[in-house]
Design a protein that fits this description.
The protein is of the alpha+beta class. Helices cover about 15% and strands about 35% of the residues.
Length: about 140
């Protein structure tokens, strides 16, 4: 059993005990019990409101163990368009529904949802289903670390 209590900034060169693959939802939970594929039990006891990002490092209370967080591939919708205005419009409509959303200059990504897939297709956007890492915006009031 391992209890992780502190998040420190990503450093790709640091040696870690192991890597913890978490979905977007799991990366927003500050209190959580997880079982890894190799049967380790891990407890997250992070400051409330912590949102973990791909590459973040988690540390035990004593500082003797480091664990790297990775974004676990999960079912998502990838939304693209030839026109950036269409992507902006889609982001606006999804934001109104408080849908967790990954925003980039070339695509939007959200959790797989049939109703939203239909709505976006009706708006003329290209929507494809995939299993990929999902890193939604943390929001204006969320805090990282």
């Amino acid at each position: 059993m391992l209890t992780l209590t502190k998040c420190i900034p990503a450093d790709p060169d640091v040696a870690v005990s192991f890597t913890l693959a978490l979905t977007a939802t799991e990366r927003t939970r500050s209190r959580h019990r997880l079982e890894t594929p190799d049967d380790r039990v891990v407890y997250l006891r992070l400051p409330r409101g912590t949102v973990l990002r791909d590459g973040d490092l988690l540390q035990t209370e004593t500082g003797d163990r480091l664990v790297r967080v990775t974004a676990k591939p999960e079912p998502v919708l990838n939304v693209t368009s030839q026109r950036s205005l269409d992507l902006l419009r889609a982001a606006y409509h999804l934001g109104n529904r408080h849908v967790p959303l990954e925003v980039t200059p070339t695509y939007l990504r959200l959790e797989s949802d049939l109703v939203l897939k239909t709505m976006l297709a009706q708006m003329g956007l290209e929507v494809t289903e995939a299993v990929l890492p999902f890193q939604p915006e943390t929001g204006a009031y969320g805090h990282h670390h």
